[in-house]
Amino acid sequence: MIERINVLALDWLTSAQALAVLGTQPQTLYANVSRGRIRAKKDPDDPRRSLYSGDDVRRLADRSPGRRKAESVASDAIRWGEPILKTTLSTVEHGRLFYRGVDAVRLAETATLEDVAALLWQVGAVRLKGEASGDGEPLERAFVALGRRAARDLPSLGRGPQVLRHEAQSVAATMISAMVGGTEGLVHERAAAAWGRPEAADVVRRAMVLLADHELNASAFAARVAISTGSALSAAALAGLGALTGPLHGGAWAGVAALMELVERDGAEAAVRNWLGQGRPLPTFGHRLYPDGDIRAAALMAAFELPPAFAALREAGERIVGERPNVDFAMAALTTAHGLPERAPILIFAMARCVGWLAHALEQIERGELIRPRAHYIGQKAGEPGGLS
């Protein structure tokens, strides 16, 4: 029997235990860790060794690649599994994020969102300037502006790549201008000015570069599905924005707000223990694609001083849970550190990721394929009790 190491309701296995369950060679175990399929962390009793998530190890062990049906393979792929679409845009390898082969962290040192757009869209200089439109909150204005365009813009089907790349700039400018307005300056400068925090412009720039794309995430996939039907680029961006707003995606930063209230009241140690004691995973800590810590979070947090409450939460969370803060934590901390609007994290995320959505849309158009998976029906069948007759 494999001995389990219990840490806060999660079980962790040594490499020998994990290999015994998987029945594979060490290099296969390490490859699964680097691809985010198995979570790993340093052994607190021996920093030279690593421990591996028992849940992840057993999930992979239960698979039999040579005998699985195609439907099972596809189903597993959708849940953080094997890649299901080929892309040349971005990838996470060995804990590092690359945009078309360029290290995103290094790019964030000097590049702007416009520079990343030019790289991902494969065009020359990019200008993302447009007119502010409508009333209401920034996110609401963005939905309305994209919705109006989606209703009137031409379909992407049958149109040339240069025309579509030019239109991508226009679509991104529409969404960004709806959120922060302004016609002069780079996007990060306009955002910082709109929020009355011009001194935050550089760190906002870094955040936007680090968030521009992230493999085939949920919102990028939504954008690709939409554009695969031949819809307008604005419709693809609208699909991406809709997916981004969910609490399991771009809205994840909000999960730390309730936790921070406990930190301010009870202290970080007590807050983390109380949270975990209620059977809730600690929000904004850990990321499946970064077993050794979200490199985007580390790069962003190095650019500003963490507020004391966030610094205390970071220390307590890392020590008690064994996971490092992810980029959602960093965005929440950035917002507090610079006094940005409460919803600045989702706005920065959306403006940055719009560049990625449109890059995925342009790439999918070149593929010319409709994304249309089959469903595995598990409901009642004709002739069964309560079914059709």
Automatic annotation (TrEMBL):
Matching entries from Gene3D superfamilies are given as: Citrate Synthase, domain 1, Cytochrome P450-Terp, domain 2
CC terms in the record's Gene Ontology section: cytosol
Q: Which residues cross the membrane?
A: none
Q: Which GO terms describe its molecular function?
A: citrate synthase activity
Could you state one GO biological process linked to this protein?
A: carbohydrate metabolic process
Give, as in the UniProt entry, the pathway in which the protein acts.
Carbohydrate metabolism; tricarboxylic acid cycle; isocitrate from oxaloacetate: step 1/2
Stated family: Belongs to the citrate synthase family.
Name of the protein in question: citrate synthase (unknown stereospecificity)
